[in-house]
Amino acid sequence: MKKNPTTILIYPQLEFAGAQIPTPPYSILFIADYLLKQNIDVKVFDLRFDSYKQVKEALSNNDIEYIGVSAMTGPQINYALQITKYLKKNFKYIKIVWGGIHATILPEQTLQNKLIDFVIRGEGEKPYYELINGKNIKQIKGLSYKNKNKIHHNPKSDLLNKSEINEQKIPWKLINSKNYIRNGNFIIITSRGCPYRCSFCYNSIFNNRWRGWTAEKCMEELDKAVDYGAKKLTFYDDNFFANSQRIKDLFKYFKEKELIWKAELRVDQLNYSLAIKAKNHGCEQLFFGAESGSQKVLDILNKEVTVSDIINSARIVNDVGIQADYSWMIGIPGENCNDVRKTLSLIKKIREINSNSEFSIKILFPYPKTVIYEKALKKGFKPPQILSEWGNIRRERASKYLKHKNLLEMIAITSAIVGKKIFKENNIPPLKILRFFADFRWDKEIFSFGIENFFFKLFKDVIEKVISDKDTSYDPFSHKIV
Ligand code: B12
């Protein structure tokens, strides 16, 4: 076993990746950063930009034994299987290690795929290093492996602690910053986990402890991104505001550096003083997981918020002049048509209070190992039985066990047009026409005869091709296609 081997980490494509500013593949970047610190030579490939040919060249020029592949549940699994198949076919000796949320929640089913040799569950930094550095596989926490056709799952690995998280750096030398910093836009994650226990979220099983970069660490990493041209920041933290002292210090930094930003916040975390401070320190937008207009459904989702918290948040952001983006869900086990109506009417109420708000309505997909997953199973949900089938799930498609599938899908599709400013802010005739019909449907709540749904499914690949045109991207702050 060669000491300090070379390895490759791969982030497969995503569907409709062109529809938004690409988020750096932090899933593999922080593992790569950890490996670099152990003097491991690691190469990172983001297949949204890099080609199979580049991966092949790296393999041909280096003595590589292990390759790590990341995947979240959904379309990314198809792309992850494609590259895994390609690698196994062309480099038979290579050992493939899958990691990331999907392999973590379904390690057994993932390893039943004969192309995959190892699964690392949970945070990959330490277990991946131990595996490629030759530690006895029976002793690697978080590792699942095959032996004589039997699958073994070693004990769970420990979460990285706060100081280990604060030692992490974005390894800019391994990626092309121009792929991720576009028109000043940059997406960053400065923490892991969330103290709340929403029944549909992976955090209840995955990151059940909030650990974040200190304000100083955030500034250190943001300074580098600013040097690469970042001016408009999007924080994808599940709970960016969890530590109020950190937020206070960061606000000063954003003002000094004249940075504008958007982040996610719970509706019950917002109050006038926080909103005013945020506004005065560069906050342009706040993203809220509002989920439902029915208190019964909010309780099924264990959101621990009330409908009036959602209304209150809309008043505050409107009065303070911060743009809001609300995310809603329908197709929830235990939800009935009346609950869906409550959600639609609450969305309309929010827009009356704050016409400057955006929204999207997604159809809940019950992810394994979440509380809502068990509820869905009781309602007749039939989960995919093999790895590849998980690649077919789509948040704009209603699962088979749900009633009124067409209605749910038409509401989701109509909201994707009515709820987003891109269709209003850009003088592009097809977008304007789509918006005109969607507005009519939305105002009159006519969601039958779903021709849009039919055409979307028919021309999805064409639409994705048009959206994924490399020369243009969507600016989430100006809502302009640039
Ligand atoms: C950024 C992001 C996106 C980006 C894409 C990711 C990117 N880099 O561009 C965008 C916006 C495109 C996106 C879209 C979607 N997303 Co998203 N997204 C996230 C988010 C906010 C951050 C991901 C991240 O970078 N995390 C930080 C890294 C460090 O954590 P990590 O990914 O878990 O990686 C660690 C471990 O998992 C492990 N690991 C990961 N990969 C590997 C690989 C190997 C080899 C090893 C050993 C270990 C390993 O080690 C890493 C370091 O410790 C997460 C929530 C979250 N906070 O993680 C949701 C999340 C991953 N998304 C989710 C979902 C469902 C989606 C969508 C399917 C939703 C939809 N609209 O349809 C889409 C689908 C995209 C598509 N069309 O294919 C879910 C996934 C649930 C699941 N069961 O998979 C999450 C968890 C949100 C949630 N709360 O449920 N997403």
Write the layout of secondary structure elements.
Blueprint: E1 6-11, H1 26-37, E2 41-46, H2 52-61, E3 64-70, H3 76-90, E4 95-99, H4 101-105, H5 107-111, E5 118-120, H6 125-132, E6 143-147, E7 150-153, H7 162-167, H8 177-180, E8 185-188, E9 191-192, E10 211-212, H9 215-227, E11 232-235, H10 244-256, E12 260-264, H11 272-280, E13 283-291, H12 295-300, H13 307-320, E14 323-330, H14 337-353, E15 358-363, H15 371-378, H16 405-418, H17 422-425, H18 429-444, H19 451-458, H20 460-467, E16 474-475, E17 480-481
Helix pairs in contact: 1-6, 9-10, 13-14, 16-18
The structure holds cobalamin.
Description:
The protein is an alpha/beta fold and 482 residues long. It folds into 2 domains: 6-153, 3-Layer(aba) Sandwich (Rossmann fold), CATH 3.40.50; 182-481, Aldolase class I (TIM Barrel), CATH 3.20.20.70. It is built from 20 helices and 17 strands. A 7-stranded mixed β-sheet has the order 2-1-3-4-5-6-7, sandwiched between helices. A 6-stranded parallel β-sheet has the order 8-11-12-13-14-15. A two-stranded antiparallel ribbon has the order 9-10. Helix 1 (26-37) packs across helix 6 and helix 13 (307-320) runs parallel beside helix 14. The longest helix has 17 residues, at 337-353. It is globular, with a radius of gyration of 23 Å. The chain starts with 5 loop residues before the first strand and ends with a strand. The structure holds cobalamin (B12). Cobalamin binds at residues 14-16, 22-23, 25-28, 30-31, 68-70, 72-76, 97, 99-102, 105, 120, 123-125, 128, 189, 201-202, 236, 238, 367, 395.
